[in-house]
């Protein structure tokens, strides 16, 4: 058996899969306990779900990661390679190439298919990072989603977390999956760096929810700041 990670989302050659899993959850089995405490009956599994944790790195020899992800970001919430993406995280760092990670799922009965779920264009909020480093120039060019840094501060990492706020999976008359629906989408960003959080300016679309500044007699001043925004459905 070869040592090789599976391209579980079929993202293509620019994305190097680091790890992935296929986890079949068939633990939902309605049952009845008899009067004497023994098992009286147990059903076949209901609402069988397969989950797909994934982790990629992006080399970006030609394009940035946003460009190469394409419709994954411009129609987020849509089924990708027969899977619904529950969470998607894009991590940029001064210590390595961009990392794409998260989880996806689908159902054995009435699985999610393309064209049946609300979608969201999250691309305007995401920088098109390419290669090693935090893409500060592209972050600054994102209009109302722009994030800029004073000359006295430099980010060391920036992580964007994307998820449909409310993905509902309805069960049918027999307890198996009947249909899915999406409503709302949230993009969060967390940034660490050298300097102070007051040196970070967010565009009008962002809501800043926390910031932390730290200093010591052995290290440069450092900050952590996080913000979020909402994306309307297409």
Can you describe this structure?
The chain starts with 14 loop residues before the first strand and ends with a strand. It has one domain. With 234 residues, it is mainly beta. A hairpin with a 2-residue loop joins strand 7 and strand 8. It is built from 3 helices and 14 strands. The model has no long low-confidence stretch (mean pLDDT 94). The longest helix has 5 residues. Strands 1, 2, 5, 6, 7, 8, 10, 11, 13 and 14 form a 10-stranded antiparallel beta sheet that branches. The protein has a two-stranded antiparallel sheet with strand order 3-4. A two-stranded antiparallel ribbon has the order 9-12. Helices cover 6% and strands 47% of the residues.
Task: Briefly summarize what is shown.
The protein is mostly beta strands and 234 residues long. The protein has helices spanning 65-69, 71-74, 136-140, and strands spanning 15-20, 23-25, 31-33, 39-42, 49-58, 79-80, 83-93, 96-107, 147-149, 154-171, 177-194, 200-202, 207-214, 222-231.
């Amino acid at each position: 058996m070869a040592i090789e990670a599976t391209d579980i989302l079929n993202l293509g050659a620019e994305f190097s899969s680091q790890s992935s899993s296929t986890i079949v959850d068939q633990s939902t089995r309605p049952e009845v306990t008899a009067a004497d405490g023994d098992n009286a009956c147990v059903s076949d599994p209901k609402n069988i779900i397969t989950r797909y944790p994934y982790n990629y790195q992006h080399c970006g020899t030609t394009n940035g990661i946003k460009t190469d992800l394409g419709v994954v970001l411009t129609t987020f919430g849509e089924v990708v390679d027969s899977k619904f993406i529950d969470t998607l995280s894009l991590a940029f760092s001064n210590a390595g190439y961009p990392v794409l990670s998260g989880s996806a799922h689908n159902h054995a009965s009435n699985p999610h298919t393309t064209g049946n779920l609300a979608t969201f264009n999250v691309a305007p909020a995401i920088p098109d990072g390419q290669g090693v480093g935090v893409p500060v120039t592209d972050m600054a060019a994102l209009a109302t989603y722009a994030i800029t840094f004073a000359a006295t501060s430099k980010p060391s990492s920036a992580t964007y977390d994307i998820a449909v706020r409310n993905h509902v999976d309805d069960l049918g008359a027999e307890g198996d999956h009947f249909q899915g629906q999406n409503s709302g989408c949230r993009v969060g960003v967390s940034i660490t760096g050298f300097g102070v959080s007051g040196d970070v300016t967010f565009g009008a679309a962002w809501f800043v929810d926390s910031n932390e500044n730290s200093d010591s007699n052995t290290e440069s001043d450092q900050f952590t700041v996080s913000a979020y925004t909402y994306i309307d459905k297409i």
